[in-house]
Prior knowledge:
The protein is mainly alpha-helical. It has a domain at 16-44. The chain has helices at residues 2-27, 32-43. α1 runs antiparallel to α2.
Amino acid sequence: MEEIKEIKNNSCELVIKNHMIWSMGAGFIPIPLLDFAAVSYIQL
């Protein structure tokens, strides 16, 4: 039972980390509307 919780926790952390990295990358787009669209797309 504890192993399942650990696997789920690791999976959740990986998803959050990937979204965070992609959002940070989209934040470097210098055009505001494209930046907004990219971050919105990533969050969906």
